[in-house]
Amino acid sequence: MQEAARSPEQAGRAERGETIIRLDGVNKWYGEFQALRDINLEIRRGERVVVCGPSGSGKSTMIRCINRLESHQRGRIIVDGIELKDNLKNIEAVRREVGMVFQSFNLFPHMRVIDNLTLAPMLVRRMPKREAEEIAMRYLERVRIAEQAYKYPGQLSGGQQQRVAIARSLCMQPRIMLFDEPTSALDPEMIKEVLDVMVELANEGMTMVVVTHEMGFAKTVADTMVFMDQAEIVEVAPPDTFFTKPKSERTQLFLSQILTH
Amino acid sequence: MADTLTRAGEPGGPSTRAAPTRASAPPPEEKIAVLRWLRDNLFSSPFNTLVTILIVAGLVKVVPGLFAWGIQNAVWYTKDHEVCRAASGACWAVIGEKHRPMLFGLYPYAEHWRLVVALVLYLGAFSITLMRRFWNPVFLIALWVVVGTAVGILLWGGVFGLTFVPSSQWGGLPLTMVLFTGTVVLGMPVAVLLALGRRSHLPLVKTVCVTFIETLRGVPLITILFVAVNVFPLFLPSGMEINTLLRIIVGMAIFFACYQAEVIRGGLQAIPRGQYEAAESLGLTYWQMTRRIVLPQALRICLPAMVNHIIAAIKNTSFVLIIGLFDILTATTNVLEDPLWRRFFVEAYLFVALVYFVFCYALSKYSQRLEQWLSAGRQY
Known about the structure:
The complex is a heterodimer of chains A (261) and B (380). By secondary structure, chain A is of the alpha/beta class. Helix content of chain A is 39%, strand content 24%. In chain A, α4 (113-124) crosses α5 and α4 (113-124) packs parallel to α6 (158-170). Chain B is built from 17 helices and one strand. Chain B has helices spanning 2-9, 14-18, 33-41, 46-72, 81-86, 93-104, 112-130, 137-156, 172-198, 203-217, 221-231, 244-269, 273-281, 286-301, 303-316, 328-335, 345-375; one strand spanning 326-327. The longest helix of chain B is centred in the last third of the chain and has 31 residues, at 345-375. The radius of gyration of chain B is 28 Å and the shape is globular. The two termini of chain B are 21 Å apart. Chains A and B meet through α3, β6, α4 and α6 of A and α13 and α14 of B.
């Protein structure tokens, strides 16, 4: 169904294992402050990438560039064969294929949970209401929250809200999911329920880019660890190398700080 | 919680035994609740006691006089102004005697029934629109197209054997109604667009909106109406004419829109950035996001302030007196030219005030209800 909505040449562009996101010499400044410096990164289809680093290192900025919530000033970003420039059509095309989960959930408080989920499929994918609702219920069941479908977001706990947010993104049937510190705003007892959902998603083969401080999660699901510091990518490595023998001193320092407490 | 409390009240109820500390006995001062209320609300401190005494003294001084004038010695109904003149109380009879020119202005006397029908239709449609169970855009638009056409036909006439009445002869309450509805219906969409435009990232759109709002907001309404009526026609090609009433409505709508735009901007600013980001990341276009995510939340936030301006718009309709149209207030002033009844202007104006008050108060009450509806089931 998802494939039908796409032109054939687009569908063939990224086979499993091929590059689906490419950042090529990406630079970004906020005024005088450089937020991203010469970022080069390739992410393959189905790959699970965990991005970590101290706060202010540019992790969030980088993944927000991938669906153009932030614009970069130099370099190229190509997502699923589409280059992100000022062209609004390209931006919207990318956003249709890239789901995003935020630290602060960002559910729409004036809509019931079910309406939060069906809104974008109906407006953006022009899906009939009944079909959108069926899909919504399916994803709500997958995040184990179907019984809350007719409540408003404000009536749910933080963990429940974040699971709804994940389901909302999945309803658009994206090819890539971005997670921007999805558990940082949660009370400790709710972190697990959200991480469990994310682990399941990873096991199903979703391409995921996750900014997080949850190193346990990273060890479980990541194919690739990316460590950022001071607007740069310092180290890219598979998790076993990354956690046991990191090359860079900055990585070692960071890991010693977060793993000791 | 409530459940626990009610059960706790029952003697020997399960929760009373299970949790004796949480069982709340009825307050012992139940019988002297009135005294307690008085103490808490009227005499809680020396200052409050003083204020209470002053207010009571003031009421004692004013109320009996008002009662004697307004009710006890008032003349309620007479055709003879001499009876009123002889009475020491209010002459409410002036309303009975003059209500038709007050309510309907200069509109031909024999055709007043048309205005009554139009008012009934209008108020009916208005009430239906305010009811939640009829909130269906297609139905409401259809309703207003039908009612608007019917009201137009009734007011203007010229078809179906109705005598033609030019808009310069419309007056009284129906004129107030046309002005108010026109102002709000034209003004609200413009206000929303101006508010959005003012926050636009496109420099040209932003500049135009800011200039428009700031210029027109800095000018008294009466100036705008003067320009609309007297200056604007000078710029029209000769021979072309735009109805004065329409020009007035557009002038009022623009003025209304500039103020309302600033109110709505306040609501827009209260929407967290995350809402925009979530909508954008789902692939919604700007207008989809604005219509479904941003405006519903923003308008709810600024609803009380918006209603405030809508109420002001009802009262601003009385400015049409400067162009010789007779809305309910001007029509009343005109009626009081009659030397026989002139001295009873207080009663006549009180009646007009009551009409305005009923509409404004109803709107204000309704907006409170609307706020409750819109926040039902939601915690922000």
